Amino acid sequence: MEHYLDNSATTRTCPEAAEAAVRVMSDIYGNPSSTYTKGREAAGLLRECREAVSAALGAKSEEVVFTSCGTESDNWAIIRGAESLSRSGRHVISSLTEHDAVRESLNFLEKNGFEITRLRPDSTGRIMPEQVLDALRPDTVLVTLMMVNNETGAVTDIADICSRLRGTGYRGLIHTDAVQGFMKVPFRAKDLGADLISVSGHKIHAVKGIGALYIRKGIRLLPYIMGGHQEDGRRAGTEAMPAIAAFAEACRQDPRIGYIRALKDDLAARIAAKVPEALILETEAPHILSISMPGWRSEVLMNHLETAGVYVSKSSACRQGKRSHVLEAIGMPADVIDGALRIGLCRYNTQEDLDALIDGLVSARALAHGRR
Q1: pLDDT digits 0-9 by tens, 218-259
Q2: Which of these, 177, 227, 238, 293, has the minimum number of CB atoms within 10 Å of its CB?
């Protein structure tokens, strides 16, 4: 039996989203840019989908642009955002614990003459508002900080940071990678204060290959992908309507955050009781639990759990086996990092999934003790 507990890497597509995608592929398959009936039908669906995603974001429909994924949204927001204000300055504030989509965008800017200040987080991975204010300079043009850390589940208070930055008279852009926060922690774009917000579909039970970038009304951001007039001239390329329809349908579903939070709390308590040597990193996000079994190797634990049909990860799927830069940045010892596991929960997980994970950890512990 399969026990999938790596929902921070990706989620299985919910039936409603899958059905929406199939319906578009089978019936509403016109190009939204075409002027005849099939095209107008697709264009009407595109408007409905944009409204559904924007409603989930708490934004106006014209502020949401569909992209291929969260990575594209991050690249576009950070690179074009910084470039758009380069005449006013070339300083960017971020953190040491960002997703690689942000890290590589910052590296690109750095190679092209921008100066990047990378803030060190607290012991859970959060960035505090005071750190951002202390790093602020007259030539700062962009602040980009992750809302929910994809490895630890630490939640950075983006709303407070935005409020305090604007209170200083800061006129640059504020971007947040909300891929792990969207429909997991409560926020509304119109109240958050960020100018640019990246989200992704496959983290909320839509299909892979779809994301969105919130661009606050009044912000002018040059296209990152060029070659057509789609998305109101902001992103070229025929809209991926099956994926967009799936994304919209996923946004209409109840995320069941209270249920997921209860699973996480129960799991943390049971691990503490059954595997006392395990270290548990307590963070605010309802769906991510970061643990470590010092003295073990993450890969060995993952392989052992997989034999029982239990799937977890050791860090971001994008890291491809590399040591976690997030856990290094928050000051974890080497043996803790090397024994770390990330558990990602979703509304489809059950007590049976938790039982299987606990049993797997207990049996791994017994095997290890038997070898000593």
Answers
A1: 999 999 999 999 999 999 999 999 999 999 999 999 999 999
A2: 227
- Active-site positions? 318
Token digits of residue 52:
């559904």
Angle at CA of residue 228, ends 222 and 230, nearest 5°: 80
Q: Is the pTM here over 0.85, yes or no?
A: yes
- In whole angstroms, what is the distance from residue 231 CA to residue 68 CA? 13
Each residue of 248-283: pLDDT tens digit? 999 999 999 999 999 999 999 999 999 999 999 999
CATH 3.90.1150.10 residue ranges in the chain?
A: 3-11+256-371
Q: Where in the chain is the domain with CATH 3.40.640.10?
A: 15-252
Terminal-residue alpha carbon distance, the chain:
31
User: 3-11+256-371 — its CATH code?
Assistant: 3.90.1150.10
Burial class of residue 106 (count of CB atoms within 10 Å of its CB; 0-12, 13-18, 19+): buried
User: Could you tell me where the DSSP H helices lie in the chain?
Assistant: 15-26, 37-57, 70-75, 81-84, 100-111, 129-135, 158-167, 189-192, 241-252, 257-274, 298-307, 325-329, 334-338, 351-371
Domain 15-252, architecture per CATH: 3-Layer(aba) Sandwich (3.40)
